Amino acid sequence: MSRNRILWIAAAAVAVIAIAIVIGLRSPEQTGSTASASPSLTASARASATSSAPATSSAPATASTAPGGAIYNDGFGFIVFEQQAGKASFRRESSNARLSSFDQQGVAVSPDGFSIAYWTPGTGPSQQLRVIGGASELTLITLASGQRGGGIAWSSDGAAIAYSTDSGGSIGGAANSSTLNIHELAANGRHGTTIATETNTGWFYRPIAWDRSANIVAAGLTGEGGGMGFYVTVRINPDNSFNVQRMDTKSSGLGVLMQSVRASSDAKFVLGVDFGSSDIRWWPLADYAAGKIESGAGKRGALWRPGTHEIGFMSGEQLWLGDVDKAGAQGLCCTAVSGVPATSSLRTFRADGSAALIAVGSTGSAELGDFTLIRLGGDPKATSGDRVTFKELGGLATSVRFR
Predict the structure, then answer these.
(1) Which CATH number do you get for residue 122?
(2) Does residue 42 lie within any of the structural domains?
(3) For all residues of the chain together, what is the average pLDDT?
(4) Does residue 325 lie within any of the structural domains?
(5) Distance (Å) of CA 41 to CA 33, 48, 166, 199
């Protein structure tokens, strides 16, 4: 693979990591500053917020409500990354009116969808890790001079956060330092505790998940090219000591792309997509070596359906849902939703897993595109006509929950 190709992939990986979606907050016990006019996920804020969509030819010029009210559920909405770099907005499912906006450099949505965590733009000492939950916004971490915010991953119970910080050279450079850290939201919890450090290797930590019931934090180490070079698990012991294990996951080419790595909402399983083959790999959080593979031939993307161990992916004109708990020697045991355009991709699931959002065709983040919301029931095969299509910027990223 040429160096130019590798560097292009690295840039793409960094861009995706910068808007990675991870998992969230339940307890507001942690003390912190409450920002004025902070974005909010509450119903009262939705009622009073005004549209902040950019007035450009590519963005929705006026608020509009699409047909299909029986499918939309305005107890949920979406985060949209706007044309203006670093700006993200909230909208309802049924309307493109912007409810509120905020400046960010990496966003994470909680497993229940009610809260988000995000890095503010910049670098230390001005960059902060903040949490929006209900009507409040809390500042958890303010970085030291020379530090940059890395990834964010919430614990399975929503009571804590794993995050990484970087300093020194960029990804691929040898003169660098990266830390993996934990922050518990309870006032008497561990705040900003470093559990692993990587120095002068060219590798950077990107947290994946934290299973609090098993006291295990998982992260990937990524470098030039955007692949996951090592899979790292840290066991947090009752005496506050840490046992760190790493597995070399490098293979021919880039192997699993770090930007594709996702954890199930209960943090029991992790998936990733192989760059060369597009194979979908999944494994137990604590044991990468116990993973299984679904052939990637003809498949597009892979995401966990919230509240389940089902992996969603596109194949031909179908959305497939494969339950890893039922996977046998033949791979994932799947049910499918038919009649989806062959050029489409799975963008996200509704925060409670009751619907899937499909991006129709290829749309740039600053361009208007078509999205299809498909309601999922106990039998996805019965939902062939249970869908609605609407237009939004290609930066529509993930689902949030308002009530």
Answers:
(1) 2.130.10
(2) yes
(3) 81
(4) no
(5) 18, 12, 30, 39
Instruction: Grade residue 172 by pLDDT with cuts at 50, 70 and 90.
Output: low
User: Cα separation of 99 and 298, whole Å?
Assistant: 38
If one counts the domains in the chain, the total is 1
> Would you say residue 211 lies in a domain?
yes
What is the extent of the structural domain holding 278? 3-53+70-289
Would you say residue 403 has pLDDT above 60?
Answer: yes
Task: Specify the pLDDT at position 254.
Answer: 62
Instruction: Please report whether residue 322 resides in a domain.
Output: no
Looking at this protein, which amino acid is placed at residue 104?
A: Q
> Mapping DSSP to helix (H, G, I), strand (E, B) and coil, where does residue 23 land?
coil
Q: Is the pLDDT of residue 391 over 80?
A: yes
DSSP letters for 337-349:
E----TT-EEEEE
**Global model pTM greater than 0.85:** no
